[in-house]
Design brief:
It is built from five helices and 14 strands. The protein is α+β, with helices and mostly antiparallel strands. The strands form three sheets. It has a seven-stranded mixed sheet with strand order 1-2-5-9-8-7-6, sandwiched between helices. A five-stranded antiparallel sheet has the order 13-12-11-10-14, with no helix packed on it. It has two domains: 206 residues, BirA Bifunctional Protein, domain 2, CATH 3.30.930; 48 residues, SH3 type barrels.
C-alpha cells in the first residue's frame, strides 16, 4: 500500500492495455518501483536485443542523468520518469538519428500543452519550460546503442517547491496550476503523441523539414538574447536567430557574425527591450 494518497502508483496492466496492441509502436511497458536510471535499463535491454517499442517507467529514480551530466532525481511517484527504445533504421539513415531529441521535445511540449492545459515551450534543444516563466519542468536525454536510440524523459508533475533542486530554476505541472495531474492519462498522451510524430518522421526517411516547422513555433529560445556555454568556461553571447538544416542553434554575435551550435548550455538573458521575432532581413 502506498502512503501518499495524492500520488497513486502507475498501473502496468492498464498502461499495457491502453498503449500496446495491433498497429501500435509500443510493444511492452515495464513499470519499476525504483531504478537508478530508466535510460540505463533501456540501454541494457537494447544491447540484449530488445525490440523497438519498449517503454521503461520508474516510480522513483535515484541516479538519472540530464545533459552535461547533471543529475535528475525524482521523488517517488511525483513525476513521469521514463525511457523508450527506438530503432529507426534502415528507414532512416543513421546520420539523421540525431534529430530524435528534438522530435521527442516537440512531442512532449505538444502533449503537455494540450493535456495538462499549461503553456509549454522548449528551450533549445529540448528543455521543457512551463507557463510564462523560464522554469524547467522536464528534460530529455538521448543515448545511442548499437542499432538503437534510447530516449529518456523526466517530467515534474506533482513535485513541490521544497522537492525541486535549489541550484537552478525548476517547476512542475502542479506549481503551474495544471488541472490534469493524473499521471496515467498524461503518460498515455505523451507516448501517443511521440509515437505518431516518430512514425511520420520515420516514414519520411527522417527528413527534418516537417519537424523543424513544428519545432520553431514552440522554441522559446528563438528571438532571445542568449549565452551559449561550453566546457572549459567558454561562452558566446548573441541573439538566437534560427535553427539550421541540421537542427543547430544559429546565434548572431554582436559583431554580426553568425555561428551555429550543435551543443552547449543555453542561458536566456534578460533583455532591456523585447527582441522581435522573426528577425527582419
Amino acid at each position: 500500500m502506498y502512503e501518499d494518497l495524492r500520488r497513486p502508483p502507475l498501473r502496468t496492466a492498464a498502461l499495457t492495455a491502453a498503449l500496446t496492441g495491433a498497429g501500435s509502436l509500443w510493444r511492452e511497458v515495464r513499470v519499476l518501483a525504483d531504478a537508478p536510471s530508466t535510460n540505463a535499463v533501456a540501454v541494457a535491454a537494447a544491447a540484449a536485443g530488445a525490440a523497438e517499442g519498449l517503454v521503461v517507467v520508474a516510480e522513483s529514480q535515484s541516479a538519472g542523468r540530464g545533459r552535461l551530466d547533471r543529475s535528475w532525481v525524482s521523488p517517488p511517484r511525483a513525476g513521469l520518469t521514463f525511457s523508450v527504445l527506438l530503432r529507426p533504421g534502415p528507414a532512416v539513415p543513421m546520420a539523421r538519428w540525431g534529430w530524435l531529441p528534438l522530435l521527442a521535445g516537440t512531442a512532449l511540449a505538444r502533449a503537455v500543452g494540450a493535456h495538462a492545459e499549461v503553456p509549454a515551450r522548449l528551450k533549445w534543444p529540448n528543455d521543457l519550460l512551463l507557463g510564462s516563466g523560464e522554469r524547467k519542468a522536464a528534460g530529455i536525454l538521448a543515448e545511442s546503442v548499437e542499432g538503437a536510440v534510447v530516449v529518456g524523459v523526466g517530467l515534474n508533475v506533482t513535485t513541490t517547491v521544497a522537492e525541486l533542486p535549489a541550484d537552478r530554476p525548476a517547476t512542475s505541472l502542479a506549481i503551474e496550476g495544471s488541472p490534469a495531474l493524473d499521471r496515467e492519462p498524461l503518460l498515455r498522451a505523451v507516448l501517443r503523441t511521440l509515437a505518431a510524430d516518430y512514425t511520420a518522421w520515420r516514414a519520411g526517411g527522417g527528413d527534418p523539414a516537417a519537424l523543424l516547422a513544428a519545432y520553431r513555433p514552440l522554441c522559446a529560445t528563438l528571438g532571445r538574447r542568449v549565452r551559449v556555454e561550453q566546457s572549459g568556461g567558454r561562452a558566446t553571447e548573441g541573439v538566437a536567430v534560427d535553427l539550421d538544416d541540421e537542427g543547430r542553434l544559429v546565434v548572431e554575435q554582436p559583431d554580426g557574425v553568425r555561428r551555429s551550435w550543435a551543443f552547449g548550455d543555453v542561458v536566456h538573458l534578460q533583455a532591456s527591450s523585447p527582441v522581435s521575432w522573426p528577425p527582419s532581413g
